[in-house]
Specification:
Blueprint (H helix, E strand, L loop, with lengths): L2 E4 L1 E4 L2 E8 L17 H24 L7 H13 L3 H14 L3 H17 L4 H4 L2 H15 L18 E4 L4 H10 L3 E4 L7 H9 L3 E3 L13 E5 L4 E4 L3 H21 L16 E6 L5 H6 L5 E4 L14 H15 L4 E4 L29 H6 L1 H14 L5 E5 L5 H21 L9 E5 L2 H5 L1 H7 L2 E4 L1 H9 L17 H17 L3 E3 L7 H10 L3 E4 L1 H12 L3 H11 L5 H12 L4
Parallel strand pairs: 3-4, 4-5, 5-6, 9-10, 9-16, 10-11, 11-12, 12-13, 13-14, 14-15
Antiparallel strand pairs: 1-8, 2-6, 3-7, 7-8
Helix pairs in contact: 1-2, 1-6, 3-4, 4-6, 7-8, 11-13, 13-14, 16-18, 19-20, 19-21
Length: about 575
């Protein structure tokens, strides 16, 4: 009998194959006090385990093809760096010396401390980085406990064509999947911003996350179908299902091969309207991918990484040199730099501040609120951005503005910085555009006020959706409610686009919604003319744009704005395109 299991599709594609189940099991961490005479030996045991963990990760790193995108290798590099990180590794050594903890327990104590810090973070992307801490510590603990390597960790393993099912996967696991020729993978936990989802999209491996309790219904070597679009796993599929999905897989493979030829083609609709198609970027090393897919520039450059894994905040010169490096790589393409989006409780070292623990950090002191409260963190970044603007086309983007007082305070600081740079004879672009992220419902409702005062707007749908619907999108218990097509979300987006049109100010969208081809046509109909998406999604969105006629899409959008539910809008889109939304 065929069983259908439902999760969240995070990387498109169809895979058919036998299942390999990864059963790590819960590590049983011993906890005991060692004798004083054993301290040095216990420290040496931990040092050896850390060295062995580094050796394992370097072996995986060496098996990654040289042409692999930097964003993929970055996850392995991050885990290698964590193995030298003071906060993670040195504290267990102290616990062994001062409290005589055994090595496994000392690691567990520090792991729990760091995980608690990350779980308090309000930014979904940074909050899911808790997984990196868990995975690195678990790797060391497995070595200390003398656990044998799992089948997929053996580099000569015969798992080509298999579908991997696990509770969760580490970045090293995920990269090994590609090396071993894994057809697809599914995890019981995780969300759309987890490292597993990000890597899966970058590697082009069909994937599903949040497939709760799947291992209760699937056995080793069962045949399954993975639908990375709809987020469905079919267990023991019948012949009709196999025939249907084989045809879909062939069609999808032809479609993906066609996309490669679109790199140098303008993003223009059938009726001749040019659409701006830019890329979202996390790290400087990822900027090469912008050029590889032919993006028109960078519509969102997140700068939080500058504050992480360090004890002091970056100074102005470090900011400046980082931005200059990026401007040189882009060679004249525009760069939109978002000022840091950290929260007061985010212990990302360089952004650390003292203060009470917040009971609801997602609604607390974060992003521009923190910037205005801590100008010593904010001003160096602003000065560096202005200085960098003399060397190439740069735009300044302010996150999480929610009222005009914040906007006027930011503009006041910017005016002061301009005067300081003028007095010092420092060059900058006097017309550097300043814009706002529209990601708070209040800002979307009052978008006309921001549009009149600022140079551009950029809709951040990730936060806008979760704040509008009042759900945590990385919480497995409620993320099924995360609905980009919710009528309230569509109306806020439309209101923002109309505000930009009325004020003759450009409006972009840089959230995940912009990078989903299922939503691109609706967004075009609503009036969006500037998309900023993950590079892995750019060519697919471009093809959707090129296949679209704005006249018919405007009518579609008008009907969608009158819909009573997201499901009703999804049905409209499916009827219009034949693609399940």
């Amino acid at each position: 009998m065929t069983i259908a299991l439902h999760g969240l599709g995070v990387s498109r594609g169809i895979a058919i194959g036998k299942v390999h189940i990864i059963e790590r099991g819960q590590l049983d961490i011993p906890e005991y006090e060692i004798e004083a005479a054993q301290v040095n030996a216990e420290i040496a045991r931990l040092e050896q385990a850390v060295a062995a963990a580094k050796h394992q990760l370097r072996a995986i790193r060496e098996h990654i093809p040289a042409a692999t995108a930097a964003e993929i290798t970055a996850f392995i590099d991050t885990h290698l760096l964590m193995l030298d990180d003071t906060a993670l590794i040195h504290e267990p050594f102290r616990l062994i010396r001062e409290r005589r903890y055994n090595a496994e327990h000392a690691l567990q104590v520090q792991r729990d401390t760091l995980v608690g810090i990350f779980e308090e973070m309000d930014d979904a992307y940074l909050r899911t980085r808790r997984d990196d801490v868990v995975h690195v510590v678990s790797r060391i603990q497995r070595i200390l406990l003398k656990h044998t390597p799992l089948k997929h960790e053996e580099l000569d393993s015969r798992l080509g064509g298999y579908v991997v099912l696990a509770d969760d996967l580490t970045p090293a696991d995920t990269v090994l999947m590609q090396h071993l020729g894994i057809a697809a993978f599914a995890t019981e936990y995780g969300g759309p911003t987890s490292h597993t989802a990000i890597l899966a999209r970058s590697l082009g491996i069909p994937s599903i996350v949040g497939l709760h309790q799947a291992r209760r219904y699937v056995r080793e070597d069962d045949q399954v179908i993975v639908d990375g679009v709809r987020g469905i796993m079919l267990v023991a599929p019948d012949e009709s299902s196999l025939t249907y999905y084989r045809a879909r897989r062939e069609e999808d493979q032809r479609y993906q091969s066609e996309l490669i030829h679109l790199k140098g083609v303008p993003a223009r609709t059938r009726d001749g309207v040019d659409i701006e198609l830019q890329a979202n970027i996390e790290l400087p090393r990822d900027f090469e991918t912008v050029l590889q897919v032919g993006a028109a520039g960078v519509g969102l450059y997140r700068t939080e990484f500058l504050y992480m894994n360090r004890e002091t905040a970056p100074e102005e010169e470090e900011h400046f040199q980082t931005y200059v490096q990026v401007i040189k790589i882009l060679s004249g393409l525009p760069l939109t730099i978002r000022t840091f989006d950290l929260g007061a409780d985010k212990q990302v070292d360089g952004g650390r501040r003292a203060g009470p623990v917040q009971s609801n950090p997602a609604l607390g002191l974060r992003a521009i609120r923190l910037c205005l409260k801590e100008p010593a963190l904010f001003r160096p970044q602003l000065r560096a951005i202005f200085r960098a603007s003399a060397l190439g086309p740069v735009r300044l983007l302010i996150p999480m503005l929610s009222n005009t007082l914040e906007m006027e305070q930011v503009l006041g600081i910017i005016d002061e910085i301009r005067r300081d740079l003028d007095a010092a004879g420092v060059k900058y672009d006097p017309k550097l555009p300043v814009g706002a992220m529209i990601e708070v419902p209040a800002a979307a409702v009052c978008a006309d006020i921001f549009a009149r005062r600022l140079d551009f707007l950029s809709i951040g749908t990730n936060d806008l959706i979760q704040y509008t619907i009042a759900i945590d999108r990385v919480n497995d218990e409620v993320n099924y409610l995360y609905d980009p097509l919710h009528p309230a979300v569509l109306r806020l987006i439309h209101n923002t686009l109309e505000a930009g049109r009325a004020a003759n100010k450009p409006v972009a969208m840089c959230g995940e919604m912009a990078g989903d081809k299922r939503h691109a046509r609706l967004l075009l109909g609503l009036g969006l003319r500037s998309f900023s998406v993950h590079p892995a999604n750019l060519l697919e969105v471009k093809k959707t744009i090129m296949d679209s006629d704005l006249a018919s899409l405007t009518q579609l959008a008008a009907r969608a704005l009158k819909a009573n539910s997201g499901a009703e809008v999804a049905a409209m889109l499916e009827a219009e395109t034949g693609v399940d939304s």
